[in-house]
Design a protein that fits this description.
The structure is a homotrimer of 139-residue chains.
Chain A lengths: L1 E9 L6 E4 L1 H11 L4 E7 L4 E6 L3 H14 L18 H10 L2 E7 L2 E2 L6 E6 L6 E9 L1
Antiparallel strand pairs in A: 1-8, 2-7, 3-5, 3-8, 4-7, 5-6
């Protein structure tokens, strides 16, 4: 069994941002030399997500509005977590809806994907250094 | 390390539908000959889900109503994604709540499940051909 | 390839409760002797979750209130599932938002985590015996 580990670093300019990382994950699979296996991609932070959906800017706008309606950023004082001095309680909630991680199949050295699947880093408390972990096992 | 890959194809009659695929996943494990490992089951599409919950029709009705309240299909014009000519923006949102994939343990050649766990394909934009991927690694 | 399996048992005193199980998962990794691999941690029940977020009591209170607003326990009669004699339909919904499972990387024999990541068992229909499964594969 082979295994491979890599980190990707982000520092977004906006509090909320979606970044397509499909190419970087495929490059990690290439570097690993693994042809058949499973690839875990997870946020190493608790206010951001890794998820799979469509690379369509209108949809990303819909996600932003929808998540804001389900877990609004303001009023800050609405959340007890923000009594710690943080203002990011909403980001912890949004991340639960979008998920922490994806596990994807590696087949014949490629991401084994349907026609529209793309992997995104979803930031909900940006403007600071964040990391995503890629861990691949297989052979 | 062994690995095994299989696709299941669906074409639902309704826009929203939940289909129990536990038997098909266990059959894939049987075919694979893998006794100990991990089994990934994921939708290959971005408007449907694979999830684990109860096989109870009342609950499935509750899911349908609840998801519709959180991410309504109409008005279509509410979503910017639908400006692309699609009418399925809500399906992309519903799928985030229900999830893209499950990873399940394989122990002694069987799905290692609690008493009520059943695997479902959750369709939110049906009446077209869709696929689910099963990828198993182990030995 | 090595594999390792372990169950953790819970019986909470409250209907809704969040329990930090990070130490127990690390102990399972230690027992397994696996240095590089993937570790699945999942609820074996369909009214509870395993998820990764912050170990901060204010945030857990926010989770409780937020989940109650998205999927209220009462009125019991609101849910068709509860016609079966259960009163836990809301717990089945809450668990979909928080997720069934996490898959975490094992690197050099340790949980490969960012600075604040902690694993929680999230109970939404407590006061009865429940189990969490840990399955680790790797070498």
């Amino acid at each position: 069994m082979k295994n491979f580990r890599k980190e990707i670093v982000f520092q977004t300019k906006n509090r909320v941002e979606f970044i397509n990382i499909t190419g970087e994950v495929q490059r990690a699979i290439d570097e690993s030399g693994i042809k058949e296996g499973l690839c875990l991609v997870n946020s190493m932070h608790i206010t951001s997500s890794v998820f799979i959906n469509d690379d369509e800017s209108g949809l990303h706008n819909d996600f932003r509005i929808w998540l804001e309606s389900l877990a609004p950023h303001e009023p800050i004082s609405k959340y007890r977590h923000n009594l710690t001095g943080e203002d990011n309680a909403d980001a912890h909630l949004k991340r639960q809806i979008m998920g922490r991680e994806v596990v994807v199949a590696v087949t014949n050295g490629k991401l084994d994907f349907g026609p529209w699947e793309q992997i995104f880093y979803g930031e909900f408390d940006g403007c600071r250094r964040k990391r995503v972990l890629i861990k691949i096992i297989g052979e």
